[in-house]
Write a sequence for this structure.
């Protein structure tokens, strides 16, 4: 069971806006930045959002991130077939046994 | 262009050891934290360890503490992961990653480690 909780699946039709949630706690999302990754089938993960809402160069502005308290969200607008992938959130966790990075369990996005 | 190329994966028996390497290019290696992240077959991502620019700070996930050691050689632009006392649950694709901000940003293509008798 992952420290960060994501819905296992999400879906939408082309052109729609979809959001993927990521729920954590005060020791991770509540006190650290949230990152989002996209993993297309058979490929390495790709950074989509860093530091809650920043997009690396080359990432379309259809992708946006937000954070509130101990939860975060990834929004994808103007959904396209090539967005069909697994999406993961991540953050540092300030645990008592030492800091470490935690990932969500991943959300499989299907474009209908 | 940032490039990260992992090597050293393969089949190893339970209790055995393996050393993964990651060759970095396209950026000033000595200026960045580096990480290892793994993904078991059909499963999600799991962060394994990271290391500061000069190697003075290292952090590990609890499940590998005392068994895995992350290290780097800035003169060779290389990152390493020494894995000892391997278990079946360590079977995964291991990714080398360069940090952007404070988490992995650029990722290699991964190397598969299979722990099985």
């Amino acid at each position: 069971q992952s420290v960060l909780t994501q819905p296992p699946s999400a879906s939408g039709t082309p052109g729609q806006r979809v959001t993927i949630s990521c729920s954590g706690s005060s020791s991770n999302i509540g006190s650290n930045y949230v990152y989002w990754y996209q993993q297309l089938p058979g490929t390495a993960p790709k950074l989509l959002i860093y530091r809650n809402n920043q997009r690396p160069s080359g990432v379309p502005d259809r992708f946006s991130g937000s954070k509130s308290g101990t939860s975060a969200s990834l929004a994808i607008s103007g959904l396209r077939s090539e967005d069909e992938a697994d999406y993961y959130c991540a953050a540092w966790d300030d645990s008592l046994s030492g800091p470490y990075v935690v990932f969500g369990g991943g959300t499989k996005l299907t474009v209908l | 262009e940032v490039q990260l190329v992992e090597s050293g994966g393969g089949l190893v028996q339970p209790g055995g050891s393996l050393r993964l390497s990651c060759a970095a290019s396209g950026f000033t290696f000595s200026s960045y934290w580096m990480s290892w992240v793994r993904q078991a077959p059909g499963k999600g991502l799991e962060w394994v360890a990271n290391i500061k620019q000069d190697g003075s700070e290292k952090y590990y996930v609890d499940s590998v503490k005392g068994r895995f050691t992350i290290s780097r050689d800035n003169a060779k632009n290389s990152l390493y992961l020494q894995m000892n006392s391997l278990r079946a649950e360590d079977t995964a694709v291991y990714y080398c990653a360069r940090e952007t901000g404070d988490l992995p940003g650029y990722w290699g293509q991964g190397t598969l480690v299979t722990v099985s008798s």
Remarks:
- The longest strand of chain B covers residues 92-100.
- The CA atoms of residues 89 and 115 of chain B lie 8 Å apart.
